[in-house]
From TrEMBL:
The lineage of its organism: Bacteria, Pseudomonadati, Pseudomonadota, Alphaproteobacteria, Hyphomicrobiales. It is found in: Cell membrane. NCBIfam families: outer_NodT. Keywords: Lipoprotein, Membrane, Palmitate, Transmembrane, Transmembrane beta strand. The keyword Glycoprotein does not apply. Belongs to the outer membrane factor (OMF) (TC 1.B.17) family. This is Efflux transporter outer membrane subunit. It comes from Chelatococcus sambhunathii. Its main location: membrane. It is a lipid-anchor. The keyword Ligase does not apply. InterPro entries: MdtP/NodT-like, OMP_efflux. SUPFAM superfamilies: Outer membrane efflux proteins (OEP).
Length: 471
């Protein structure tokens, strides 16, 4: 007995105090590209800022029908069920029993009956908080599942917006390419007229025909891009491509929403991926508490009570009633899995700690990249618009001089190709600008939750939640 007690005490000594590592997140006081930020956080329906009713309709449909969002909601149901499963350990387990048996009587050769009716109850005293810790772990995991739903929903929103803008870009490029084909045909007709009067050569005509053929060859890939973007949107809204008909339009018809990040410390409570990592970390912390409690004695209480009689009519009577109450204590003595389980829980906590740190730093990186992206793409659009204007002016002059015979064909060909390239680059620059704005919305954590909750989701349960260090 003494040896067993010593083994039990030595095993319990493995459950020493858990020295929780610090979060170690370096939260800056400002952004690198914004000296004094004035917060303009995204609205819950931030996509409406682009002024496209069709985009809004697609995103709202995806909220209802997207398969990934549906799977994320199912994971919330599973997490909530696990909370109820773990919470069942905090209340007694009660079973009802009923039994009827018959056996022949040796003296009378008649069948003699026996009837039993009773209740069995068992309960483990959660003296060390093991069961409560497992419930807290499940609660934190359920919160993490809700933030995961927000991560999935935000990803679906931004994917639809980016794909929709790419579709508009392809439609605009197709319209420009068809206009370029028409312009190239006009110049070819002018050169043909000059060939007929002897002021242009067959080489000039062949060169222009090559440009015309290049412009025509550019049409099928753009048309393919349009169809590919349509099918990508169909997948996001959960419908077969044949059921999706997107009108589209031009990027120039969209509005440019205003958006600005607040303080970096506020970002950490808005980003659903950071909050998910925080909730997962809290669940790991509760798992360590439960693993430590496994080293300590467990106390079980049991109770049985009921009626037993050989006659059914006298079953429910005071003389047939019997009960039993018992209590037991169990102390692990030699179980080498317990230290391993504790080390496993600590290792998982440290892994989730690094995941949280990475998510926090990644949020700062995403915002910085989005800030520079929004600013530089706006500058690129402005400069490219000036380039198109200059190229258009040069092309118009060359085309007019060609009709008058005052310019050589090479000059016309060069100005023509320069204009075509400048127009295509301008559309690409506009697309990059709108996609940079979408990246900014995503970097700031969006403003909408799939479950209809405010941005940032539900607060974490009040238990061992490490505080975010800011400086």
């Amino acid at each position: 007995m003494a040896a067993a007690a010593i083994c039990g005490l030595s095993l319990s000594g493995c459950a020493d105090k858990w020295d929780r590592p610090a979060l170690g997140v370096d939260t800056p006081g400002r952004w690198k590209d914004v000296a004094a930020p004035k917060a303009a956080w995204p609205a819950p329906d931030w996509w409406r800022g682009f002024g496209s009713a069709e985009l809004t309709s697609l995103i709202l449909e995806a909220e209802r029908a997207n398969q990934d969002i549906g799977a994320a909601k199912a994971r919330i149901e599973q997490a909530d069920a696990q909370v109820r499963i773990n919470g069942a350990t905090l209340i007694p387990v009660v079973d009802g029993t009923a039994q009827a048996t018959g056996a022949p009587n040796a003296r009378t050769d008649k069948l003699q009956g026996s009837y039993q009716l009773g209740l069995n109850a068992s309960y483990e005293l959660d003296f060390w908080g093991k069961n409560r810790a497992s419930v807290r772990s499940a609660q934190a995991s359920a919160v993490a599942a809700r933030f995961d739903e927000e991560v999935v929903a935000l990803s679906v929103q931004t994917n639809i917006a980016n794909t929709y803008f790419a579709l508009l870009s392809s439609q605009e490029r197709l319209a420009i390419a068809r206009g370029n084909v028409k312009s190239a045909q006009t110049i070819l007709d002018a050169i043909q007229a000059r060939v007929e009067v002897g002021t242009a050569s067959a080489l000039d005509r062949a060169q222009q025909r090559a440009i015309l053929d290049q412009q025509r060859a550019a049409l099928p890939p753009i048309e393919q891009e349009i169809r590919t973007n349509e099918t990508a949107i169909a997948l996001l809204v959960g419908r077969p491509p044949i059921r999706v008909d997107i009108k589209g339009g031009r990027l120039t018809s969209l509005k440019v929403p205003k958006i600005s990040p607040g303080l970096p410390s506020a970002l950490l409570v808005r980003r659903p991926d950071v909050r998910q990592a925080e909730a997962t970390l809290a669940a790991s912390d509760a798992d360590i508490t439960a693993a430590r409690a496994e080293f300590l004695p467990s106390i079980d209480l049991t109770a049985q009570g009921g009626f037993e009689s050989t006659a059914l009519r006298s079953l429910i009577s005071s003389s047939a009633f019997a009960y039993q109450i018992a209590g037991g204590l169990t102390q692990p003595i030699l179980d080498q899995s317990l230290p391993g389980n504790l080390d496993l829980a600590k290792g998982q906590y440290r892994e989730n700690l690094f995941a949280y740190r990475k998510a926090a730093v990644q949020s700062f990186v995403d915002v910085e990249n989005a800030l520079i992206g929004v600013r530089k793409t706006a500058e690129q659009v402005r400069l490219q618009e000036a380039a198109v204007k200059s190229a258009r002016e040069a092309y118009d002059i060359a085309q007019a001089q060609l009709k008058e015979g005052a310019v050589d064909i090479v000059t016309v060909l060069n100005t023509q190709q320069t204009l075509f390239d400048a127009q295509d680059s301008l559309v690409a620059a506009r697309l990059a600008r709108f996609q940079a704005l979408v990246s900014m919305f995503e970097a700031l954590g969006g403003g909408w939750a799939a479950g209809g909750r405010p941005a940032g989701g539900d607060p974490l349960p009040a238990f061992n939640v490490p505080k975010i260090a800011a400086r």
